[in-house]
Each structure stands twice: as structure tokens, then as C-alpha cells.
Amino acid sequence: MRLLSMWVCVLVGVACLGLSVWFYPRASHPPGVVVDQPTRVGLRYPMGARTVSFALRNPHATAGRIVGACEVCETSQAYCQFRLLTPLPVDLPPGAEHVVECELVLRKPGRFVGELHLYVSANGSQELTFHVEGEVDPLGE
């Protein structure tokens, strides 16, 4: 009986060691790209077009790549358009920073919400969301 208990302890120890080796790289190197200030809320803009920039960082030792994008404006297209200006695909070398530029076009006064979804392959798959929300100033101030 004592021999069986010893073997069970050894097997449990080996299993725990195996799990810790398997989980450690995933815990210490989370997937993805880091975005500085992905949400801009409470903005007040005049009507017209402007460029909105977002800074991306690839903190990993492996290269990444922005492979696709999807643009959404919650008001009708007559009021708001939020689109990617940066040509795709974009390579993200290890440790590099990259600025993604978007165009925000506001055509009528009122509230607007724009979102841009980027699809990134960097240490795994990831979807990044850039969110811009605010009010169109009818006086252009």
C-alpha cells in the first residue's frame, strides 16, 4: 500500500510539472498587440474630415501582421464614415511600434459612434477595436 501511495505521488508530481511547463509560456507571453488609447469618447468635432491615429505596439519577440479591417459607423452613412487609411497588410516586427491612421468624416450635426476592427496575427490571432464616439458641432467650433 505504501508503494502505491508513493507512485501516486510521483505521478501527480509529474503531471503538475508537465502542466506548469505547458501553461508557463502562455501566461508569460500573452497573445496580441497592445494599443495605446483604443477608445476616444466625449469628442466634439466640427463637420468635415479629419485623421484619427492609433498607436500599436508589438511587445513580443515574434513578428506580427495586420491582415484585415472592418469599419462600422452606428449612425447612417450620411452622418458618419470611419475608415482605415493605412494600406494593408502591415507587418509588425518584434518590439516595433506602428501608427494606424483612420479617416473620420462627419457630415451632419448630432452624435456619432465609429468603430474600426483590425484583425491581427501576432503570437496568436486577435481582433482589435478602435472606438471613436462624440458629438458633431454644428457651429464648426
UniProtKB/TrEMBL annotation:
It comes from the Bacteria. This is DUF1573 domain-containing protein. It comes from Gemmata algarum.
